[in-house]
Amino acid sequence: MLTGYTFVWLEHFELNYLNLEMFSSETGKWISYKLPCPIPIQWSELADGPIYCYGALHWEVRYNGLLAFDPYKDPKSVRLIPFPDDRDLLSKYLDSSSQLCGESQGTLRYFEVAHGRKQFYLFSMWAMNDYEKGEWCCEFKLRRSDLELSNWLTRYGWFIPLSFHPLNPNVVYLYCMEPERIVSYNILNRRLDFASKPNDRGQSLHSVIPFVLPRWPVLVPIATFKSKKKKKKKVKCRN
Description:
Layout: E1 6-14, E2 17-24, E3 29-36, E4 51-53, E5 56-61, E6 65-69, E7 78-82, E8 99-104, E9 107-113, E10 123-130, E11 135-142, E12 159-164, E13 171-177, E14 180-186, E15 191-194, E16 223-225, E17 233-235
Antiparallel strand pairs: 1-2, 2-3, 4-5, 5-6, 6-7, 8-9, 9-10, 10-11, 12-13, 13-14, 14-15, 16-17
């Protein structure tokens, strides 16, 4: 049962400092913090929304890594978790839209799409191996020639990673520019398949929000009533 909660409001960056405020339902007060950052960070370098994992908030800093903040740890501090050092997108001049970092099945994952150079792996993915040390473990690297493609997709398609499957750790969703569709990539069989209908309404498919419906209805247990005069009688409640 929820007994308390905490709000974290990220204000802005000031040179090498992160300014944020925290509200605790237990005290009913806001507290301001000015925390030093490991590297200079500009507001424009932050990706949309924090990633919650391991009980901490993580802001993706383009090209550099994750800025981690644990609201329940004292003293308050932030640390930078670098992205994997064996990835292809090491240059700041490459498109950051080819990166995807998020929570998947209780761990942090980093997925990368690299285009343009034959020596690059098309799809690569890492999972967090040691959170305290900030160490990643490469789960796979796949060249374009290794893909199992359906007849509808050429081997020169351009992909942008969108989201990890919220329930299946072996599926990643991507945006395919030609034909303009959302596709799913299965890590186990290396196959790309359609995940959406043709986009004939001119709607943007560049961003998706994974949403999982809660389990409903909730199962109601069978209640048993005891009586001195009568035998046991079971009453079944309707779901």
